[in-house]
Specification:
Keywords: Coiled coil, Transferase, Ubl conjugation pathway. With 369 residues, this protein is mainly α. The chain contains 20 helices and 3 strands.
């Protein structure tokens, strides 16, 4: 595309040359210039920022890779946009929306309006604008930063509308098998300051469904999906929603598929800890007992020479369900739990595990007589 025939967005023009940035760099004042232009300014003996006229306490220049990437994508995507067609959005409009969301000076109302424009565009199936363009222009990263990047600050009530709207846009821009989102979900759920936000995440059916799907199908990012689920289920307000969303099914399927393989990172302890967090709910206990492989999977985890943490978790979980469900006791015995427990007691397991194992043996034997 011939950039001379295009209207260059203000964001993409060097304040000195007024031409399209070729090598954007940023000064300590936060102002961005084309490298060749600012170097000429410095070589003329100037030690100030051309726009703000502030004296520079640090003359170093930092490459603005984000802006460079945005310009590159603008040049690549330009031919897709027709300014005369009201059914499409121009790159100028996209740049303006992005600037509004990034600006620290814009009002919350203006940012809400910008998000609403994004939501409408992403919801319009008849719109000729390709959603991929939003991803290529960095909107997903920006929205994630706006939602999760301020975890240290208390989220005020008036900002919740903004967060919910941004989340709806994020969900429309995914598939959710995105490492960045899983990392952000885990980070957000780990922060006490974002508890209200985490309840929104944990009760989002689509988000929970996708995380469970990642765990069941054991994608490359399963570790991050497990960490995200673990963080979310640490909040009591999320646990029922996670159980309804199939969290137990995902965890059991994942653990039962591990077998004895050690070719991949062992995430079984993390998966078992998630089950323990959920077992405070009657619905979770029922989901475990009613799962075709639920009890069998736990029994197989009882005697794990190399995974003492998993052994202890398995014994504790069996104690919970066998104490409440006769069917669980019968199925555990049929699956060979008595032999597993005897082997465990003869091993070098910890005192807590041995104590729990004896309790489980006593419970099962009392039901057999």
């Amino acid at each position: 595309m011939n950039k001379d025939q295009m209207t260059i967005p203000h964001l993409f023009r060097c304040p000195i040359s007024l031409d399209l940035f070729e090598d954007p760099v940023t000064l300590c004042t936060g102002q961005t210039y084309d490298r060749s232009s600012i170097e000429k300014w410095f070589s003329a003996g100037n030690l100030t920022c051309p726009v703000t006229m502030q004296r520079l306490h640090d003359p170093s220049i930092i490459p603005n890779n984000t802006l460079r990437h945005l310009i590159h994508q603008w040049l690549q995507l330009g031919p897709q946009f027709d300014p005369g067609n009201s059914a499409t959005i121009t790159t100028d409009s996209l740049a303006a929306i992005k600037v509004t969301l990034e600006s620290h000076e814009e009002t919350l109302e203006n940012k809400l309006q910008a998000l609403e424009k994004i939501r409408v565009l992403l919801s319009d199936e008849n719109c000729s604008f390709d959603k991929l363009c939003f991803l290529q222009l960095g909107f997903l990263a920006l929205l994630l930063e706006l939602v999760f990047g301020k975890s240290e600050a208390q989220i005020s009530t008036e900002h919740m509308d903004f967060i919910e709207l941004a989340l709806s846009c994020i969900l429309k821009l995914l598939p959710l098998r995105n490492l960045e989102l899983l990392n952000m979900t885990e980070s957000a759920a780990a922060s006490q300051q974002t508890e209200e936000l985490c309840c929104i995440l944990g009760n989002n059916h689509k988000l929970v469904h996708e995380i469970v799907l990642i765990i069941i199908q054991n994608y490359e990012v399963t570790e991050y999906a497990l960490k995200a689920m673990s963080a979310l289920c640490s909040l009591q307000c999320n646990r029922e929603a996670l159980v309804r969303g199939g969290a137990l099914d995902g965890i059991i399927t994942y653990i039962s598929s591990l077998g004895c393989e050690r070719t991949q990172k062992n995430l079984a302890p993390l998966a078992m800890s998630i089950m323990e967090k959920l077992m405070v709910l009657d619905s979770a206990k029922e989901a475990l007992v009613n799962h075709p492989k639920g009890i069998e999977t736990l029994v197989n985890m009882v005697f794990r020479v190399s995974d003492q943490e998993c052994s202890q978790s398995a014994v504790e979980l069996l104690l919970i369900v066998c104490g409440d469900f006769e069917y669980a006791r019968e199925e555990s015995i049929e699956a060979g739990v008595l032999n597993q427990l005897l082997l465990l007691l003869q091993s070098q397991c910890g005192p807590i595990t041995k104590s729990k194992s004896r309790m489980l043996l006593k419970l099962l034997r009392s039901k057999c007589t």
